[in-house]
Amino acid sequence: MILYVVGRLLAAVPTLLIVAIFIFGLVHIAPGDPAILIAGDNANPEQVDKIRERLHLDRSLPVQFGIWFGNAVTGDLGTSVYSGRPVTELIAQRVEPTFLLALYTIVLTVIIAVPLGTIAAWKANGWLDRAIMGFSVAGFSVPVFATSYLLIYVFAVELRWFPVQGYKALSKGPVETLVSLTLPSIALALVFAALIARVTRAAVLDVIHENFVRTLKAKGMGTRRILVTHVLKTAGVPIVTVIGIGLAALIGGVVVTESVFNIPGIGRLTVDAIVRRDYPVVQGIILFFSLTLIAVNLVVDLSYALFDPRVRG
Amino acid sequence: MSEIAVAPRPLLVDLLALALRFLRAHREVSVMLALIALMALVGILAPLLAPDPAAINPANRLKPPSAEHWLGTDHLGRDVYARLVFGTRTSMSVGFSVAAATTLIGVVIGLYAGFARRGGAIVMRINDAMMSIPAVLLAIALASLMSQGLTAVIVAITIPEIPRMVRVVRALVLGVRQQPYIAAAVSIGTRGVPLVMRHVIPNTLGPVLVQATYACASAIIASAVLAFLGVGTSPDVPSWGGMMADARRQFRLHPDLMLYPGLALSALVLIVNILGDRLSDAMDPRKARRGIL
After folding, report:
1. What top-level class would CATH report for the domain B17-282?
2. How far apart are CA A193 and CA A68, in angstroms?
3. What percent of chain B has pLDDT over 90?
């Protein structure tokens, strides 16, 4: 068990390093002088020189990477070219709405997708299954900003149940926050649930034909109880895995949704930074999201050690 | 199982016959392909089907549908129907180009990763690391670093799309390598490129095609996201994502300007995704009604 945990942790190190090299390289693979690129079209030569000096662009690439990575490890992601503030601080300020939006979405997704996927597997190839899987394909075909505007039109403009856009901070009361995040979370959850419902169906279908299910049935246990307490427990591992992997897609969706709903989260920060060509911020955000993904998937992996006796060894 | 003729007929004829037989057996695949062909035709024939999508007429802005402007005009007085028709071009060309580029590059890297022992492990490490960078985010960043234009958009979307293809191809190659027919081919002296071209690639074609379809669908969405956020694509090029970005300001008064491109985009992606699903079902030997491949 300890060996497994240590092994997993060690395996994440090279992944991290490769991701860091790639993100560092982003600015350098683009054609042209990175200093001019970062300074923008309107900068004078002095400003360009200043940036070159600050980012150590006059040193050799490996040295630059060493400085950048060394700083990143200690939590220093550089400073924003636009506002002059530390990137870490900018990200930290924006974490709350993004984190809550992602969490809300995942909760909604599980509530929608796991029952639907289970029912689809239970009634496999019946009309209910077809309907649910039809919904699922539609779910990840409709882009999240299209769903967002449909929801805004129906529930905010016409019915006026929710605000059209904006975000209320937690400090002003959690109910307000929840209300302001409901439409964006539903928009995101519809896409995410489509994916998870599919995976749940496949996972449950795999388990449903196992011998132990037949035994339970023979012993007279009700179908519902078998599905909920026994089948889902076994099918849980692949479902949780895909929720972890699917987080990458969710983060992409968050960037778009925050922009549609005008939520001041990391997604909005990304779009603003891109428009302003504020590359230290862009690099910092991508690194932050990648780190989050790696960490979440590591936790998912480690949780197998708790649930799966074969891994526990 | 059908017998596969070995030598005299050219491979292309065999493949065409095979494709025809496949289409006849799987009606839904054919229907989706026909719909995609239809939309591609709309994109190609756009100049014949619609007026100039860039003609600005400020006196005539935000007008409801009329005989002259079938779907009305946008905030600059441009014809919405024309922009919709020309937007088909943008979405289709990005979708196809990304799918093709992803497949080509992904198959080459995947083959290498599947065959090379030590190099393969390194490639997969890099591949897995790439997958932990959120794809849309990476595409946005790449697109913003390159000069504006459709090529930049295609490249920016292709790069994050490749690792998934590599993973699919490598898994397939590892499976195929275990097959007796590979051992048989090797034992009669087939090696290197001919072995790969004749025995490995044909037997990985099905799932690769399915993955290419999904790459196409996700590329169409990604390109719309880029245009919607105003990254990479020039606002002058009519695109569905760009139309939706323009419609934001008038959303309360003119939600229809958001609706048309949203519907077109969703419909195209849905068709491509259904094609992928049906192809996947058709290739699955457990579901196949009769042996095709």
Report:
1. mainly alpha
2. 38
3. 42
- Confidence band for B269, pLDDT divided at 50, 70 and 90: very high
CA distance A141 to A246: 15
Q: Which two tokens stand for residue B234?
A: 């020039």
Asked if the Cβ–Cβ distance from B131 to A26 is below 8 Å, we say: no
Helix axes A87-122 and A232-261, enclosed angle (nearest 10) = 130
Neighbouring-strand partners of residue A79? A86
ipTM confidence: 0.87
The answer to whether B160 touches B97, Cβ cutoff 8 Å, is no
Stretch 113-172 of chain B: residues touching chain A, C-beta under 8 Å: 125-126, 128-138, 140-142, 144-146
- Alpha-carbon torsion (A188, A193, A198, A203), positive or negative: positive
pLDDT of residue A124: 84
How many helices (H) and strands (E) would you count in chain A? 14, 0
Tell me the two tokens of residue B222. 């990604």
Summarised one tens digit per residue, pLDDT across range B182-193 is: 889 888 988 888
B258: chain A residues, CB-CB within 8 Å: 146, 149
Q: Any idea which fold A93-277 has?
A: MetI-like fold (1.10.3720)
Question: Domain boundaries in chain B?
Answer: 17-282
Please say if the pLDDT value at position B293 is more than 50. Answer: no
Cross-chain residue pair A26–B228, CB shorter than 8 Å: no
Alpha-carbon distance A266 to A285, whole Å?
A: 8
Rounded distance between C-alpha atoms, residue A162 and residue B250, angstroms: 19
pLDDT band at residue A238 using 50, 70 and 90 as cut-offs: confident
Amino acid present at B79: D
B235 in contact with chain A, both atoms CB, cutoff 8 A: no
Residue matched to tokens 């060996």 = A3
Please report which confidence band the pLDDT of residue B3 belongs to, taking 50, 70 and 90 as the band edges. Answer: low
